[in-house]
Design brief:
Helix content is 31%, strand content 36%. It has 7 helices and 14 strands.
Length: 258
């Protein structure tokens, strides 16, 4: 009898080019995929717009939801390659045999955990859609940009380092973020920073910080306002994000979610 480990090791390899759709929300399917190389974007669509739920890379697995439900559930999200991709595709018959050998309590816990994750994913998706719809309705009502930014702005005190672009990565100017939104932030920094490096309206920087949950953010931004605080010893820098990396968008979105 073939060794089960040997069967699983021989899972066929699939390759996708950057941009190719691998799985579509609403399709039926029970195969499970493991990423060997590259990254994928997990997303849903609402009103013709894409809502990013997660980004997975080497070693991560997707497609397990439909497998554990034995094909009775449709795919709950879409998956697209955001880099050239190499996947292992596990046929459900192989996995089902091994899954069936697990003790009942392990299989029960796996299914219950999966159910909780699916419910959490659906709730987060509904919250994201509701917030996007609220923003859209306010835009139609003509709410001024500054008012919208203030409404969705979150007061924080996040230490950060930032550097002009382009500049060597060893250049680290210290500051702290006083508030942040999906569109930009307000940062306080030592006035000496502007004496050593140009800080003008339109100057562009890369800001690195970490959220309270330890998620790291890289924030490309440009200066849109620049003043001094009441002491005259610190800069108050208003910045607008220019091209946020997808992962930073995701972490920031969850952090700002009501």
């Amino acid at each position: 009898m073939p060794d089960p480990e040997e069967k699983i090791a021989k899972a066929p390899m699939l390759r996708y080019d950057k941009g190719e759709l691998i799985m579509k929300e609403g399709d039926y399917g029970i195969s499970v995929y493991r990423i060997n190389r590259g990254k994928v974007s997990i997303f849903k669509e609402s009103e013709g717009k894409k809502i990013i739920l997660d980004v997975l890379g080497p070693g991560d697995v997707f497609g397990e939801t439909a497998f554990l439900h034995r094909g009775k559930k449709i795919r709950i999200s879409s998956v697209r390659a955001i880099e050239d991709l190499e996947l292992e595709a596990y046929h459900p018959s192989i996995l089902a045999e091994e899954f069936g050998k697990l003790p009942y309590i392990i299989r029960y816990l796996a299914n219950e955990t999966l159910g909780s994750l699916v419910r959490m994913n659906n709730r987060l998706t509904r919250l994201i859609i509701a917030q996007k719809q609220k923003i859209k309705s306010e835009e139609k009502a003509g709410v001024p940009w500054e008012s919208k930014r203030k409404f969705y702005r979150k007061a924080v005190k996040l230490p950060c380092v930032y550097r002009p672009t382009p500049s060597p990565q060893y250049v680290n100017l210290e500051g702290y973020i006083a508030d942040i939104s999906r569109g930009g932030l307000r940062m306080n920094a030592r006035i000496e920073n502007a004496e050593n490096f140009t800080h003008n309206i339109g100057s562009q920087f890369i800001i690195n910080t970490a959220l309270p949950n330890s998620k790291e953010l890289e924030l490309p931004a440009k200066i849109v306002s620049l003043t001094k605080d009441s002491s005259g010893k610190r800069l108050v820098i208003g910045m607008e994000f220019t091209d946020l990396p997808q992962e930073s968008q995701r972490h920031l979105g969850f952090f700002l979610m009501p």
